[in-house]
Amino acid sequence: xxxxxxxxxxxxxxxxxxxxAGLISILTFGFRLSIDFVGGTNLEYELTKDIDTDKARTxxxxxAADVLRIGVKNGVLLVRAKAIDEKKxxxxxxxxxxxxxxxxxxxxxxxxxxxxGRETMMKTLIASAIAVLGILxxxxxxxxxxxxxxxxxxxxxxxxxxxxxxxxxxxxxFGAELDTMFVTAVLTAMSFSVHDTIVIFDKIRxxxxxxxxxxxxxxxxKALTETLVRSLNNSMTIIFMLLALTxxxxxxxxxxxxxxxxxxxxxxxxxxxxxxxVLIWLEKRKK
Length: 287
Hints:
The chain folds into two domains: 4-35 and 115-286, Up-down Bundle (Multidrug efflux transporter AcrB transmembrane fold), CATH 1.20.1640.10; 40-112, Alpha-Beta Plaits, CATH 3.30.70. Helix content is 73%, strand content 12%. It contains nine helices and six strands; from the N terminus they run H-E-H-E-H-E-E-H-E-H-H-E-H-H-H. It has helices spanning 8-28, 35-38, 53-62, 86-100, 114-143, 146-174, 180-211, 216-248, 251-286; strands at 32-33, 40-47, 67-73, 76-81, 104-112, 177-178. It has a four-stranded antiparallel beta sheet. The longest helix is centred in the C-terminal third of the chain and has 36 residues, at 251-286. It is elongated.
Protein backbone atom coordinates (compact mmCIF):
# COMPACT_ATOMS: atom_id res chain seq x y z
CA UNK A 1 0.00 0.00 0.00
CA UNK A 2 1.30 3.46 -0.96
CA UNK A 3 1.16 6.29 1.57
CA UNK A 4 -0.24 9.00 -0.70
CA UNK A 5 -1.19 11.30 2.15
CA UNK A 6 2.39 12.03 3.20
CA UNK A 7 2.84 14.05 -0.03
CA UNK A 8 -0.12 16.31 0.78
CA UNK A 9 2.00 19.47 0.90
CA UNK A 10 3.35 18.74 -2.58
CA UNK A 11 -0.23 18.42 -3.88
CA UNK A 12 -1.09 21.71 -2.14
CA UNK A 13 1.92 23.46 -3.68
CA UNK A 14 1.17 22.20 -7.20
CA UNK A 15 -2.51 23.13 -7.03
CA UNK A 16 -1.78 26.54 -5.48
CA UNK A 17 0.78 27.37 -8.17
CA UNK A 18 -1.50 26.41 -11.07
CA UNK A 19 -4.56 28.16 -9.62
CA UNK A 20 -2.58 31.29 -8.71
CA ALA A 21 -1.11 31.51 -12.22
CA GLY A 22 -4.60 31.20 -13.68
CA LEU A 23 -6.09 33.83 -11.37
CA ILE A 24 -3.28 36.27 -12.16
CA SER A 25 -3.94 35.69 -15.87
CA ILE A 26 -7.68 36.29 -15.42
CA LEU A 27 -7.11 39.51 -13.46
CA THR A 28 -4.37 40.73 -15.83
CA PHE A 29 -5.50 39.58 -19.27
CA GLY A 30 -9.09 38.48 -18.77
CA PHE A 31 -10.71 36.59 -21.66
CA ARG A 32 -11.15 37.17 -25.36
CA LEU A 33 -14.94 37.07 -25.58
CA SER A 34 -16.57 35.54 -28.64
CA ILE A 35 -19.51 36.88 -30.57
CA ASP A 36 -21.77 34.74 -28.38
CA PHE A 37 -21.17 37.04 -25.42
CA VAL A 38 -20.54 40.52 -26.80
CA GLY A 39 -22.64 40.40 -29.96
CA GLY A 40 -21.57 41.37 -33.46
CA THR A 41 -20.95 39.77 -36.83
CA ASN A 42 -18.56 37.00 -37.85
CA LEU A 43 -17.74 36.68 -41.55
CA GLU A 44 -15.70 34.08 -43.38
CA TYR A 45 -15.24 34.65 -47.11
CA GLU A 46 -13.35 32.19 -49.29
CA LEU A 47 -11.31 34.14 -51.87
CA THR A 48 -9.78 33.17 -55.19
CA LYS A 49 -6.78 35.50 -54.74
CA ASP A 50 -4.89 37.34 -52.02
CA ILE A 51 -6.12 40.77 -50.99
CA ASP A 52 -4.80 43.75 -49.03
CA THR A 53 -6.44 43.59 -45.59
CA ASP A 54 -5.90 47.32 -45.00
CA LYS A 55 -7.88 48.14 -48.15
CA ALA A 56 -10.53 45.63 -47.11
CA ARG A 57 -10.77 47.29 -43.70
CA THR A 58 -11.25 50.65 -45.45
CA UNK A 59 -14.16 49.23 -47.47
CA UNK A 60 -15.85 48.09 -44.26
CA UNK A 61 -15.18 51.47 -42.64
CA UNK A 62 -16.60 53.38 -45.62
CA UNK A 63 -19.82 51.41 -45.19
CA ALA A 64 -20.07 52.31 -41.50
CA ALA A 65 -19.03 48.80 -40.39
CA ASP A 66 -16.87 48.88 -37.27
CA VAL A 67 -14.26 46.12 -37.78
CA LEU A 68 -12.72 44.67 -34.65
CA ARG A 69 -10.47 42.12 -36.31
CA ILE A 70 -9.65 41.27 -39.91
CA GLY A 71 -7.20 38.88 -41.51
CA VAL A 72 -6.64 36.29 -44.22
CA LYS A 73 -5.84 32.66 -43.41
CA ASN A 74 -5.52 29.89 -46.00
CA GLY A 75 -7.31 31.99 -48.60
CA VAL A 76 -10.19 32.84 -46.26
CA LEU A 77 -10.98 36.39 -45.20
CA LEU A 78 -11.86 36.38 -41.50
CA VAL A 79 -13.74 39.40 -40.19
CA ARG A 80 -15.05 40.13 -36.71
CA ALA A 81 -17.10 43.34 -36.54
CA LYS A 82 -19.91 45.01 -34.71
CA ALA A 83 -23.35 44.03 -35.95
CA ILE A 84 -23.76 44.31 -39.76
CA ASP A 85 -27.18 43.85 -41.33
CA GLU A 86 -27.76 41.78 -44.49
CA LYS A 87 -28.18 44.78 -46.77
CA LYS A 88 -24.92 46.38 -45.65
CA UNK A 89 -23.10 43.06 -45.90
CA UNK A 90 -24.27 42.59 -49.51
CA UNK A 91 -22.89 46.04 -50.42
CA UNK A 92 -19.56 45.30 -48.73
CA UNK A 93 -19.26 41.92 -50.46
CA UNK A 94 -19.98 43.56 -53.81
CA UNK A 95 -17.32 46.21 -53.26
CA UNK A 96 -14.75 43.61 -52.17
CA UNK A 97 -15.44 41.60 -55.33
CA UNK A 98 -15.12 44.65 -57.56
CA UNK A 99 -12.06 46.18 -55.84
CA UNK A 100 -9.94 43.03 -55.68
CA UNK A 101 -11.31 41.29 -58.81
CA UNK A 102 -12.00 38.14 -56.84
CA UNK A 103 -14.98 35.89 -56.45
CA UNK A 104 -16.27 35.37 -52.93
CA UNK A 105 -17.82 32.26 -51.44
CA UNK A 106 -19.55 32.85 -48.10
CA UNK A 107 -18.44 30.21 -45.60
CA UNK A 108 -19.93 31.89 -42.55
CA UNK A 109 -22.09 34.91 -41.93
CA UNK A 110 -23.58 35.17 -38.45
CA UNK A 111 -24.85 38.10 -36.44
CA UNK A 112 -25.66 37.70 -32.76
CA UNK A 113 -26.86 40.19 -30.16
CA UNK A 114 -25.16 40.37 -26.73
CA UNK A 115 -28.42 39.33 -25.04
CA UNK A 116 -27.71 35.68 -25.94
CA GLY A 117 -24.42 35.81 -24.07
CA ARG A 118 -25.97 37.24 -20.92
CA GLU A 119 -28.78 34.67 -21.00
CA THR A 120 -26.31 31.84 -21.56
CA MET A 121 -24.10 32.90 -18.66
CA MET A 122 -27.08 33.32 -16.35
CA LYS A 123 -28.47 29.89 -17.26
CA THR A 124 -25.00 28.36 -16.86
CA LEU A 125 -24.58 29.86 -13.38
CA ILE A 126 -28.04 28.67 -12.34
CA ALA A 127 -27.37 25.18 -13.74
CA SER A 128 -24.00 25.05 -11.93
CA ALA A 129 -25.57 26.14 -8.63
CA ILE A 130 -28.28 23.48 -8.95
CA ALA A 131 -25.64 20.85 -9.80
CA VAL A 132 -23.50 21.78 -6.78
CA LEU A 133 -26.54 21.67 -4.50
CA GLY A 134 -27.55 18.32 -5.98
CA ILE A 135 -24.06 16.91 -5.42
CA LEU A 136 -24.05 18.14 -1.81
CA UNK A 137 -27.42 16.52 -1.08
CA UNK A 138 -26.69 13.29 -2.98
CA UNK A 139 -23.25 12.69 -1.44
CA UNK A 140 -24.37 13.65 2.05
CA UNK A 141 -27.17 11.06 1.99
CA UNK A 142 -25.22 8.43 0.04
CA UNK A 143 -22.11 8.52 2.24
CA UNK A 144 -24.01 9.59 5.39
CA UNK A 145 -21.48 12.35 5.97
CA UNK A 146 -21.44 16.01 4.99
CA UNK A 147 -17.62 15.88 4.87
CA UNK A 148 -17.67 13.66 1.78
CA UNK A 149 -19.85 16.19 -0.02
CA UNK A 150 -17.66 19.16 0.98
CA UNK A 151 -14.50 17.36 -0.15
CA UNK A 152 -16.07 16.56 -3.54
CA UNK A 153 -17.14 20.20 -3.99
CA UNK A 154 -13.63 21.36 -3.04
CA UNK A 155 -12.21 19.23 -5.87
CA UNK A 156 -14.91 20.57 -8.19
CA UNK A 157 -14.00 24.18 -7.39
CA UNK A 158 -10.31 23.32 -7.83
CA UNK A 159 -10.96 21.91 -11.31
CA UNK A 160 -13.13 24.88 -12.27
CA UNK A 161 -10.42 27.37 -11.28
CA UNK A 162 -7.70 25.42 -13.12
CA UNK A 163 -9.76 25.19 -16.31
CA UNK A 164 -10.83 28.84 -16.46
CA UNK A 165 -7.34 30.02 -15.49
CA UNK A 166 -5.75 27.88 -18.20
CA UNK A 167 -8.27 29.14 -20.74
CA UNK A 168 -7.39 32.74 -19.87
CA UNK A 169 -3.76 31.93 -20.74
CA UNK A 170 -4.88 30.25 -23.98
CA UNK A 171 -6.96 33.31 -24.75
CA UNK A 172 -4.02 35.65 -24.16
CA UNK A 173 -1.30 33.75 -26.01
CA PHE A 174 -3.17 31.64 -28.58
CA GLY A 175 -6.30 33.68 -29.31
CA ALA A 176 -8.85 31.28 -27.79
CA GLU A 177 -12.27 32.89 -27.52
CA LEU A 178 -14.64 32.32 -24.64
CA ASP A 179 -17.85 31.03 -26.22
CA THR A 180 -20.76 28.70 -25.52
CA MET A 181 -18.62 25.68 -26.44
CA PHE A 182 -16.24 26.62 -23.62
CA VAL A 183 -19.17 26.64 -21.20
CA THR A 184 -20.13 23.14 -22.40
CA ALA A 185 -16.55 21.92 -21.99
CA VAL A 186 -16.30 23.29 -18.43
CA LEU A 187 -19.55 21.63 -17.32
CA THR A 188 -18.46 18.33 -18.90
CA ALA A 189 -15.06 18.48 -17.18
CA MET A 190 -16.70 19.19 -13.82
CA SER A 191 -18.95 16.14 -14.14
CA PHE A 192 -15.94 13.95 -14.93
CA SER A 193 -14.20 15.19 -11.78
CA VAL A 194 -17.12 14.22 -9.53
CA HIS A 195 -17.38 10.78 -11.15
CA ASP A 196 -13.77 9.91 -10.29
CA THR A 197 -14.13 11.26 -6.75
CA ILE A 198 -17.20 9.11 -6.06
CA VAL A 199 -15.27 5.97 -7.10
CA ILE A 200 -12.56 6.68 -4.50
CA PHE A 201 -15.00 7.70 -1.78
CA ASP A 202 -17.07 4.58 -2.38
CA LYS A 203 -13.99 2.45 -1.68
CA ILE A 204 -13.31 4.37 1.53
CA ARG A 205 -16.91 3.77 2.61
CA UNK A 206 -16.55 0.06 1.79
CA UNK A 207 -13.40 -0.28 3.91
CA UNK A 208 -15.08 1.60 6.75
CA UNK A 209 -17.79 -1.03 6.87
CA UNK A 210 -15.29 -3.88 7.12
CA UNK A 211 -12.46 -2.27 9.12
CA UNK A 212 -14.22 0.42 11.15
CA UNK A 213 -13.51 4.15 11.29
CA UNK A 214 -10.33 3.99 13.36
CA UNK A 215 -7.81 5.43 10.88
CA UNK A 216 -9.09 7.51 7.96
CA UNK A 217 -5.56 7.99 6.57
CA UNK A 218 -5.04 4.23 6.34
CA UNK A 219 -8.44 3.72 4.70
CA UNK A 220 -7.85 6.53 2.19
CA UNK A 221 -4.39 5.29 1.24
CA LYS A 222 -5.75 1.78 0.79
CA ALA A 223 -8.63 3.05 -1.38
CA LEU A 224 -6.29 5.16 -3.53
CA THR A 225 -3.84 2.29 -3.99
CA GLU A 226 -6.64 0.06 -5.28
CA THR A 227 -8.45 2.58 -7.50
CA LEU A 228 -5.66 4.78 -8.89
CA VAL A 229 -4.53 2.42 -11.66
CA ARG A 230 -8.12 1.88 -12.82
CA SER A 231 -8.77 5.64 -12.80
CA LEU A 232 -5.57 6.32 -14.75
CA ASN A 233 -6.38 3.66 -17.34
CA ASN A 234 -9.86 5.10 -17.78
CA SER A 235 -8.55 8.66 -18.04
CA MET A 236 -5.73 7.83 -20.45
CA THR A 237 -8.14 6.43 -23.04
CA ILE A 238 -9.99 9.74 -22.96
CA ILE A 239 -6.78 11.80 -22.93
CA PHE A 240 -5.35 10.02 -26.00
CA MET A 241 -8.55 10.59 -27.93
CA LEU A 242 -8.63 14.29 -26.97
CA LEU A 243 -4.95 14.69 -27.82
CA ALA A 244 -5.59 13.32 -31.29
CA LEU A 245 -8.54 15.70 -31.76
CA THR A 246 -6.47 18.64 -30.48
CA UNK A 247 -3.64 17.95 -32.93
CA UNK A 248 -5.69 16.87 -35.93
CA UNK A 249 -9.12 18.42 -35.37
CA UNK A 250 -10.30 21.54 -37.13
CA UNK A 251 -9.96 25.11 -35.89
CA UNK A 252 -13.61 25.29 -34.87
CA UNK A 253 -13.31 22.57 -32.20
CA UNK A 254 -9.64 22.85 -31.22
CA UNK A 255 -10.03 25.00 -28.11
CA UNK A 256 -13.20 23.16 -27.09
CA UNK A 257 -11.29 19.86 -27.18
CA UNK A 258 -8.28 21.42 -25.46
CA UNK A 259 -10.54 22.62 -22.63
CA UNK A 260 -11.91 19.09 -22.26
CA UNK A 261 -8.33 17.76 -22.22
CA UNK A 262 -7.29 20.17 -19.46
CA UNK A 263 -10.46 19.34 -17.53
CA UNK A 264 -9.87 15.59 -17.86
CA UNK A 265 -6.27 15.85 -16.65
CA UNK A 266 -7.08 18.09 -13.69
CA UNK A 267 -10.14 15.97 -12.85
CA UNK A 268 -7.98 12.84 -12.77
CA UNK A 269 -5.51 14.67 -10.52
CA UNK A 270 -7.98 16.33 -8.15
CA UNK A 271 -9.94 13.24 -7.12
CA UNK A 272 -7.03 11.48 -5.37
CA UNK A 273 -4.84 14.50 -4.58
CA UNK A 274 -7.35 17.21 -3.68
CA UNK A 275 -10.67 15.62 -2.70
CA UNK A 276 -9.14 12.81 -0.64
CA UNK A 277 -6.71 14.96 1.41
CA VAL A 278 -9.54 17.44 2.07
CA LEU A 279 -11.75 14.56 3.25
CA ILE A 280 -9.00 13.28 5.56
CA TRP A 281 -8.50 16.78 7.00
CA LEU A 282 -12.24 17.21 7.63
CA GLU A 283 -12.60 13.76 9.20
CA LYS A 284 -9.62 14.36 11.48
CA ARG A 285 -11.10 17.69 12.57
CA LYS A 286 -14.40 16.00 13.37
CA LYS A 287 -12.67 13.70 15.80
